[in-house]
Amino acid sequence: MSDLITSPNFKVSGEYIFHLEDATTGEVLAHFHKKNLVTLDGGVLVMINLASGGTPVPPSQRGLTMLAVGTGATGPVLSPDAPDPRQRRLNTEIARKAFSPGGTVFRNAVGAAVSYPTNVCDFTVTFGVGEAVGPLNEMGLIRSIAMPLTTATNPVPATFPVYDPTIDLSTYDILANYTTMGQGTGPIGKPNNSVLTLTWRLSS
Fold it and tell me: Could you tell me the pTM of the whole model?
């Protein structure tokens, strides 16, 4: 069993592309590509989906459904703390959104979009004018327990940095990937008249 768990073929990694532009002029206000981490709860979500088998998929067995952004990264304002795998929810979530139409895309070994499942998948969300406005410094991929996918209906109780593995995540939102932003620069402001496109890439 230990060989299976430690095999590099079963390790999931994540990275994201952050693109913010002025909605009127098209001026690029911020653009960067960075790695992030898979949380401990992300590992639980993988097991939930593997165990679901051929049964109908209730909310507790859904895969990833949306992306959330927030303003509550811990640490100094100009240099937030690095993300921690024990994180179970955004500290101060201000907006979340389901993936864009066509926003879940599998990619092959050379990065081309393909119509069949692979071990690389992009999840894309766009926050338009008036959405997710604020000094952003944290975000994450979420399996939401509620429908419609609009608010943090049932987040895991905030116990960070303590991690309690006995909590039954089938009744809560699951934060599978988490990152903090603005190390060395401070929060990244999303103006009202701007469009933010976030693409989160998971690979195994």
Answer: 0.87
